[in-house]
Amino acid sequence: MTVINPRRGPRRRHVLEGLAAGAVLVPSARATEAPPAIPSWMQAQGADVNAHPYGQPAAFEAEVVRERMKSRTLTAGASFTPLQHLHGTITPNGLFYERDHGGVPTIGPAAYRLLVDGMVDRPMIFTLSDLKRLPAVSARHFMECSGNSGTEWTKPTGRTVQETHGLLSCSEWTGTKLEIVLGIAGVKPGAGWCVAEGGDAAALDRSIPLEHALKIGAMLAYAQNGEALRPEQGYPVRLVLPGFEGNTNIKWLRHLELRRGPAMSKEETAYYTELLPDGKAEQFNFVMRAKSVITYPSGSQKLDGTGFYEISGLAWSGSGRIKAVDVSVDGGKTWQPATLQGPIEPICLTRFRLPWRWNGGSAVLQSRAVDETGYVQPTLKSLVGQYGLHAHYHNNAIQSWQVETSGDVINVHA
Amino acid sequence: MCTPKWFVFAAFCLAPGLGLAATPQIPARDYDVGTPATDAQMKAWDIIVGPEGRNLPDGSGTPVAGKAIYDQQCAACHGDAGQGGTGPRLVGGIGSLATAKPIKDVGSYWPYATTLFDYIRRAMPFSNPQSLTNDQVYAVSAYILKMNGIIPDDAVMDRRTLPMVEMPNRNGFVSMIGASVVTGK
């Protein structure tokens, strides 16, 4: 009986084939070229154990990164989450969207302090270890900048879902509840608002209605998806206000001041207010209304021939749970209920899916979310009817992706 | 009445849109965690100015003094006439809000002059925030208000007068508190 070294023959063949084809030794993805050929990565040791003490994505995923929007300075601007490349509902920490007004400060844990003052019985200063000693909670919540989709009011602008909807991410947050910290300081009667201020070069501050904040489980978060907050997410501590517009979730939190009324800071008057056609503006529209978007197939992707595809996307509401998502492949003429991936949690991204066969014709894909309050995601037309074209913030309109006969997917207003 | 026309009574100007809200019941916590803050610490920490003028510091400034500071420390980014550049425009939008091309700037859109002091003190000049003295912040705020034609050349801005400046869009905002459904958890 001849013992054949199973490696020798095939390995030689593999090399020769590669050379004959004049190609580098990159294995083809074609199923026909799998066994009996033994791939090179089975014929040598792989990378060292713990080669990257902090694990890295596969080298092939290098295009899955945040994208900066053009802005006038390098430190006041935003970066967008690549939703078209993500699965499930949790955003990897390095891909969580970012909106900064004065750059990302470097604050060491020992230097961190939080002052709680104003209309309180006992003004208090907390260190990071103080906050970590207090009872903790964890909860999964989305966060969305109210400027998300702000480019899409008048004409389709973003090429990808990253550009149209990428100011949206979702994490499991861990921290101590705002009500615990306020309970230590003792809130005086008459205090209805809490100004939260960040420790960045913009010292960005927003006034928060206390009653709402406590009802939604406001949290002083120091961890995100199991690890400490990333610097661009507010390391070491940020406010998390589930369902409130992203700007209110103050990063690098340094100060909570209890007040009778709002401070009327720049960010809650000059910005984050919605200008209506009559020249008046809505202010303190905190809650992100129900919204959804198809992430696959989505803008700039290309369908690889006719046949089966599973349409997949995300739905969310700042008011609670997603109750239903309907999907249309004919620009809103007919709708079919999508399957929701459980568990469906309040104020959290919910993944929806719908099987679809592409017959090669032109199609317009849309999704429409309904939340537990019965609120139905509006069409762009009805939203513009209500707000005009200059509100900028809170565009939660139904998104349309056109599949062309070539298989190319493009952003359209339908 | 001897009050100049750009002054209104504080009680009147603070009534609309103040958004008074109820104080929720918060259980007291006795964890023995955290350190009581001293008055000196709170004073040094607190840069939040409210529309009623709370926490506006001593000091004062005029548009004339403000122009010198503006030309030197602000114009490079906001334009020599406030027309904008690397930073947003600061003038020119008054009367445009209800048109097809609304311009939201300090003069046309901001409801409170106190916000201007508060924001400049906390965040400007962009590359060197919190470097101006309180007199300088009053002065450069005064100059921006003057560029917008909101206060006269010789107006003195201080902790008393600034909250009384009547901004053109003072009553332009509708508070949406309570309009959104919050189901809670």
Describe the structure.
The complex is a heterodimer of chains A (414) and B (185). With 414 residues, chain A is mainly beta. Chain A folds into 2 domains: 98-282, Alpha-Beta Complex (Sulfite Oxidase, Chain A, domain 2); 291-412, Immunoglobulin-like (Sandwich). Chain A has helices at 8-20, 128-133, 161-165, 178-185, 210-215, 380-387; strands spanning 67-68, 77-80, 98-100, 114-118, 124-126, 137-144, 168-177, 193-198, 205-209, 219-224, 227-228, 238-240, 253-259, 274-275, 281-283, 291-296, 307-316, 322-328, 336-337, 339-340, 350-358, 363-371, 400-403, 409-412. In chain A, strand 23 (400-403) and strand 24 (409-412) form a beta hairpin. Chain A starts with 7 loop residues before the first helix and ends with a strand. Chain B is mostly helical and 185 residues long. Chain B is built from 6 helices and 4 strands; from the N terminus they run H-E-H-E-H-H-H-H-E-E. Chain B has a two-stranded antiparallel ribbon with strand order 2-3. Chain B starts with 9 loop residues before the first helix and ends in a 10-residue tail after the last strand. The relative contact order of chain B is 0.20. Mean pLDDT of chain B is 89; it is low at 1-17. The chains are: A mainly beta (414), B mainly alpha (185). Chains A and B meet through strand 4, strand 5, helix 4, strand 8 and helix 5 of A and strand 1, helix 2, helix 5 and strand 4 of B. Chain A: Keywords: Metal-binding, Molybdenum, Oxidoreductase.
